[in-house]
Amino acid sequence: ARGMQDLAFAPGSPHVTSDKSLPLSVSRFSSSVEERFSRVPEPVQKRIVFWSFPRSEREICMYSSLGYHPPEGERDSRVPFNRGLHLLQSGAVDRVLQVGFHLSGNVTEPAGPSEPERSFHVSISFDRCKITSVSCACDNRDIFYCAHVVALSLYRIRNARQVELRLPISETLSQMNRDQLQKFVQYLISAHHTEVLPTAQRLADEILLLGSEINRVHGAPDPTAGASIEDANCWHLDEEQIQEQVKQLLSNGGYYGASKQLQSMFNKVREMLRMRDSNGARMLILMTEQFLEDPRLALWRQQGAGMTDKCRQLWDELGALWVCVVLNPHCKAEERALWLVLLKKWNKLDVCPLEEGNYSFDVPGATTALQPPSVPSAAATARQTVFRRAIKAGELCWGDCHLQKILGSDCYGLGVKSSGDKLCFDPQGRPLWLGDPFPTACARVDALRGHGYAREALRLATAVVNTMRVQRRHQLESYKQQKKELLHKGSTSITNLEGWVGHPLDPIGCLCRTLLEPCRTEDEGLALYPGMGGNVRKVLYHHVPVPSSPGSGESYVTLALEVALAGLGQQRAMPEGLYAQDKVVRSEEQLIGLLDEMEPDERLVQVLRKQAAVLLEGGPFSGFGEVVFRESVPMHTFARYLFTTLLPHDADLAYHLALRAMRLPVLETVMRVGDILPQSPLDSMMANRSPRWFILGHLETRQCELASAMLTAAKGDPKWLHTVLGSIQQNIHSPALLFRLAQDACKTATPASAPPDTTLLNISLELGLQVMRMTLNTMTWRRREMVRWLVSCATEIGVQALMNIMQNWYTLFTPIEATTIVAVTGTSHATLLRLSLDIGQREALCARARAVALQCAMKDPQNCSLPALTLCEKDHAAFEAAYQIVLDSAASATMGHSHLFTVARYMEHRGLPLRAYKLATLAFSHLSIAFNQDTHPAVNDVLWACSLSHSLGKSQLAAVVPLIIKSVQCAPMLSDILRRWSLPSPGLASLPSRRNAAKPPAAPGLDKAPLCQLLEAAIAAYINTTHSRLTHISPRHYSEFIEFLGKAHETFLLAPDGHLQFAQFLENLKQTYKGKKKLMLLVRERFG
Q1: pLDDT in tens, 585-621
Q2: Nearest to 724 by CA among 669, 671, 770, 662
Q3: C-alpha distances in Å from residue 803, one per residue of 432, 771, 842, 1076
C-alpha cells in the first residue's frame, strides 16, 4: 500500500490522527502494532480497520473504466464508474455495513422502460488500502468492477462516518461465552438453514472427530480479519475475464472497435504502472499470452504474409510496454528475473512477430565521424522479435553513481567548472548521460515517467538533451573540417544508422512528452499518451524554468521544441518494409501535431530560428544539409511546418529551409539515369522507381503541398515566386502533382474580389506547359482536361499567351489536341468576349488558329483534316489549302477510307457534291470488302457513295461502277446497290450547287452499261460465295444457306436470262455436292 501522506481523507470522517501526524502507512502501522501487542486494543483496531479502506476515487475509477476522466468532466453513461457515481448520487446505496476488513451493502437499480426495479447485494474485501476481492449479485462478467461495486466503494469513501463499523467477527466471537456462542450458531443456522445446514453438519462432524485436520489447526479463519502482514496484497483483478476479453477482441481483429479497445487496455496498463500498481505487469502478462495464442500468427507465418497494420501497431505497443515494465527502477530483482524468463520464452516461439525495419539496439543512434557505416555484425542481423528490446533492457541497471546523482538532484553539476570531467558534464557544468545510446536513454526516461517518477524523469531528460547538444556540436565541427571534400564529391553516406522518428522506442516522442507534461496549464498528463484522454483540443503550455540551467532562460517547453526539431530534422535512411516506412510518416505527423499545440511566443521563435540555422549548416547529419544521402527520408512535411511557423518572423530563413527541403534524392538519382535513355521523363521515372520505397506516392504528395504553400505565401513577391518555380521544375517529377500545383496557383492568382496576380498566373501557365511537355508522348486519361485548363489559363493572362502556345503547339500538344481543343477553344465566341479584342487582334488570333489547323492536318491528316476544314470554313484560301491536304493525303495513302468518306460526307453537307464525289472515289481505292463481310463498317459509306454518284449523273455513275466492282466482293452488298439504283435516286436536286432540273437523272437499264457490269459482278460473287460456303458447311447452317440461295435467286432474276442461269447454277450444285444429300433435298424442295 502507498503511504497515507498522499491520500485525501473523506470529508466528515471521524476525528482520528491526521495524515500529517501519521508517520507510517497503514500496513507498516499494522505490522508494528502486531509486533508490540499480543492483543490489539479495540480503539486501535477500529482505527486500523477504518483507514484500511482505499481513500482515492481515482483508484476506484482506474478499476472501473478504460480511461480516467475527472468527475467534473463529461461522462459516458456506459462506463461503470460513471454509472456507479450516478447510482450513488441518486441514493441507491443502503444497508452499508463494515465488519473488519469486509464491506457489504445493497445497491438498487431503478426501474427502466422494460425492466422492474432490482436490488443487488455487494460484498467487498480490502486490505491495506486496496480492494482485494469483490462480489456482486449482478454476476458481472467484465475485467472491471461493476457499477454496483463502484457505488458502494464511493459511498464508503465519501460517507465514511455514516458507515456502521464493527471489529472483525472473530473479535466479537471472542467476547461470547459458551451459551452465547451456541445461541449465535443456532440462530445463524436457523436463518440460513437451506444454504448452510449441510456445511454446518460437516464442520460439526469434523470438530467432534478428535484426529481431524480441523482440530490440528490452531484458531479458525476469519474473512473479516484481513490478510497477514507477510501476505502480498494487491488490487482485485479478474484474470480469467482479462484473458477471455483479449481473446475475443483478437478474434474480431479486423474491426476498428476491437483494435481501439485493445489499445485502451494497453493504456490501462500504463495507468496502473504510473500508479505503481503491481497489477500493471500482471495484466500485461495475461494480454501477452493471449496475443501469442492468436491463431492468425501461425496462419500469417505459414502463408508468408505480413500481419495487418492494426495488429502490427498493437504488437509495437506491447513491445514498448514491456520495455517500460522491465526498466522499472524500483522493482524487485526476483520480479525482473521472472519477467525476463517469460520474455525469453516468448522470444523463442516461432510465431513471435519480428520487429520490422532495419533498426538496432546496441549501436548508437548517431555517429560523430563522417565515415560510411560498417557492415552489421551477425548479432545485429540476428532474429529481432518485438520482445528483443525488452530483453536487452533487462540487462540495464540503475546503480550507476553518476546516474543516481542525476536522478537525485536538480542542482547536480552546477558547481562543476568547464575543466571538469568532460564525459560527465558539458562546458556549462550541466550533467551529461553517455551511458546508453540515445534511444535507450530515452527509454529510461519513459520508464521513469511511466512508473510515476515524474521529477526524476525530467532530470534525466534534461541530461539527455544536454548530451544530444554536445554530440550535435561535435558533429558540426567534424563536418566543417571535411566540408569542401564532401561538397566536391557531391554525395554522402548516411551517418545516422537508425532514425529517431519512427523508431520502435519512439525516443523523440518520449522526451517531448516528458518535458511538456509539467508545462501544461491543466491536469491532462495522461492525455499525453497517444490515444488516451477525450477530445483533442488546443493545449496551452507555460514556461517552467529548467533548474539545472539557472539564468539561461531555458524552459522545459524550449527543450521539448529543440528535441523535436533535432529529431525531425535528422538525416536518416528510409527503413525497410511498408509498415516501418508508414510508421515513419505517422510518427512525424504525431510530433508535428505536438508542435502545433505550442503557441510560438518570442522564446520559442528564438529557438526555432537558432535550430533552423543549425539544420541548414548540419551537413550529412541534417536532412536540410547541402548534400544528402540518396535514400534519406525527405523533409517535406517537417519543412512545411517550419515554413509556415517561421514565415511571419523570418521570411528569408523560412524560404531557404523550404527550398532546401524540396529535394527528393531517390527520384533525382533515377531521373539522372533516365535522361541518358531514349525515353520520355515520365516513362523513365516510372520504370526506374526504387521498389523498396512503398510510400513514394505519399512523399511526392507532401512535396507538392510544400511547394503549394510556398507559392501561396510568395504571391505578390516576384523574386520568391520565380525562385520557387525553379525549385519546383527541378525537383517535382510527377505530372499529376505539377498539374495540381498549376491549378492551385491559378486559383490563388485569380481571387474573385481582387485583381489577378500576373506573375503567379504566368508561373501557373509555365507549370502547365511543363506538364504538357512531360506528358506529350504518354497516355493519360487526364490529358484532355489538362489541355483545356491550359487554354483557359492562357486566356486569363491574355491574347499573347494564347498566341504563344499556338505558335509552339508541336512541343506541347498532339495534332488532334491542337486542332480540336486549342485552336477551337482559343477562337470560340466565349474566349473572344473574355479577351475583349479589337477586329485586328481577333483576325490575327483566328489566322494563327487556322495556321495551326493546317499544320496539324499536314502532320496527322487522318485525325486533323476534318477539324482543319471546319476551322477554315470562313477563309477561302485556308479552306482550299485544307482540301488540297486531304487530296494529297488520299493520293499518298496516308488517309484511310473511313476518314475519306467522313470528309466526303462533310463536303456534301457543305453543298459541294462534286468534291464529295471526288473524295468518295479516292476512298474506294483504299477499300476492300471480302465476300463474307456483310457487316463491314464501310457498308453504309459505300451505299451513300453509290446514292451520291447516282444523283450526280450517268458519267459519275459509269466512273464509280468499276471502282465498286474492284473494291466490293460481297454479293449481298452488290445486289443491294443494284436494287437502290433500280429505284428513283434520293433527291439532291435542291442543293445550291446543282444547276440541272429538279428531276433526278433516270437510272440506266440493267441490261446496259454500266449496270450490266455490276449485275454480272453480283451474280459472279454469289456463285463464288456459294462454293466457298459449301466447302465447310455444317448441318446447323443448312437453313441459313437456303436463305442465302433465295437472295441469290432474286439477283439472278434481274438479268434477262437470269432464270436459265440460276437453273444451270443449281444443276451444277447438285452434281458437284451430291454427297450432301440432306442439303440437296432442301434445295430441291425450295427451288425445284
Answers
A1: 999 999 999 999 998 999 999 999 999 999 998 878 8
A2: 662
A3: 68, 19, 11, 74
Cα 491 to Cα 294: distance, rounded to the nearest angstrom: 47
Cα gap 509→75, rounded to integer Å: 29
Contact 763, 730 (CB under 8 A): no
Distance in angstroms (rounded) separating the CA atoms of residues 163 and 157: 10
Q: Which amino acid belongs to residue 225?
A: A
- Residue-wise pLDDT tens digits, 497-548: 678 999 999 999 999 999 999 998 754 433 333 343 444 455 788 999 998 8
Q: Which of 609, 585, 795, 590 is nearest to 697 (CA)?
A: 585
Given strand 164-166, what is the order of strands in its sheet?
130-136, 118-127, 102-109, 93-99, 164-166
Q: Which helix (H) or strand (E) holds 516?
A: helix 507-516
Give me the amino acid identity at 619: G
Q: Report H helices in 569-618.
A: 578-596, 602-616
pTM of this prediction exceeds 0.70: yes
DSSP category for residue 820: I
Q: What CA–CA distance (Å, rounded) separates 897 from 885?
A: 15
Kindly state the cell numbers that stand for 14.
Answer: 471521524
Please check whether residue 707 is in contact with residue 634, taking contact to mean a CB–CB distance below 8 angstroms: no
Instruction: Tell me the pLDDT of the chain averaged across its residues.
Output: 82
Distance from chain centroid for Cα 1028: 64
Please, what sign has the CA dihedral across residues 237, 287, 530, 384? Answer: positive
Least confident piece of the model among 5-19, 154-168, 407-421, 653-667: 5-19
Spatial separation of the C-alpha atoms in residues 245 and 235, rounded to whole Å:
19
Question: Is pLDDT above 60 for 67?
Answer: no
What string of H, E and C letters represents the secondary structure of 30-86? HHHHHHHCCCCCHHHHHHHHHHCCCCCHHHHHHCCCCCCCCCCCCCCCCCHHHHHHH
